[in-house]
Prior knowledge:
heterodimer; A: 143 residues; 2 domains; B: 6-stranded antiparallel beta sheet
Amino acid sequence: MKKDELPQDKGYLIEGKVRDLNYVVDQDGRYVSALSIGWAPKNEAIKLAWEELYEHIEEARQLVLAGKASPLVFYMKLNIMDIGILASYTGMSRWKVRKHLKMKCFSKLKPEILAKYAEVLNITPADLVNTERIREIVIRHED
Amino acid sequence: MKIDFQHNQAAHCENGVTSNLLKFYGIGLSEPMIFGIGSGYFFSHMPFIRLNGMSVTSFRVLPGWVFKRVTRRLGIRVRRYKFRNRDMAMQELDKLLEKGIPVGLLVGVFHLPYFPKEYRFHFNAHNITVFGKEGDRYWVSDPVMESVETLSGEELRKVRFAMGTYPPRGRMYYITGIPEQVELKPAIIKGIRKTAKDMLTIPIPMFGVKGIRFLANRMRKWPAKLGEKAAALNLSQIIRMLEEIGTGGAGFRFIYAAFLQECAVILQQPWLNDLSREMTGIGDQWREFAVQAARCFKNRDKGQTSYDQLADMLIMIAEREEKVFIQLRNIGL
């Protein structure tokens, strides 16, 4: 890639803070490094990945609001976690976490365990059990 | 206290940490040089390892290998730790900083506060250097950032003990001894030969040049086998790996071209300049592939570029990479 062809397509990087360092060829054929704020094909790929994630989060929200799953499912997806990651952060076994994803078991959880989940998911225990809060969270890309 | 440590931005985190640490001890090597000596260049497509439900495609060797190989090939002594106990991990770090030793750390990016939100996945193979502590704030040199950052003790503890695929477990490493004379030339030769060997001769279809062909042949079947949507997601995943923060463009191919150009001067072998130009061409072709692929997954059903055409591009790329490494395989002093 030539230095003057280096794309500068604004995407998700921040100028002056974090930009891609690319290796490019200057006029004399020598390799130099140059900063780029982004590239359209890559931005598209990132956008697609996030859209997919948002879709999953939205599905989880509907499940929770319909009472078919515990709020943990929603917050787990919101933190881009799966059962394995959530289990290892909380230090509980997978099958236990899987059980807690059902509303029936979730409503019987002890405060300590709720607090543990809340800490891992970056919310307060009160917010974790408040299903109404889930309705209000806006999931959107900050463009 | 804050160690007098120079932060230099690099394309890739591990190259950057290695290069910055070596510079601190008076060995000035560029990022391409580190990447080349450490045999960072690779290709693998592993359908049985899943990340977020998709096959893993990678354009480089496993995390940690570049640092390991560079230090070994240059005769530099290092120490590395991992911890079970979190408090101990932080105490040991503090002790080293007290002694004025900059320390490389392996961290997860999900909880890194200064990272752009869109890049914060549960990815656990990011490298940073910590070079000082003032109060509860640690001075951090993150090679992908343009300037130095700070983290609180709590934040640092969190990222050092991130969970998920390949948890870092507080891994840290630092340099303990530098040889009086660093022999650069033999290290370069070793690095190139190893890369050529890995790209050409691993007898498993998922790795090296064979891996690119393997990916191409699987790609042809994606739309029929997985459906349009999953196929598009898989394709976008490859573009992200190819151009993610830290590849220097085109999945490290441009860094390697820069490395070959530098080698031509150091080893006084001008023929490497031709290979550097060819490698640049290969990188450009990877970029072209990314453009076509993006077009393909953006307008899913319009179908201007088919998966077959993309696969054909990959086959051509594999052909060219193979030729380059057949020539490089027999490099000598």
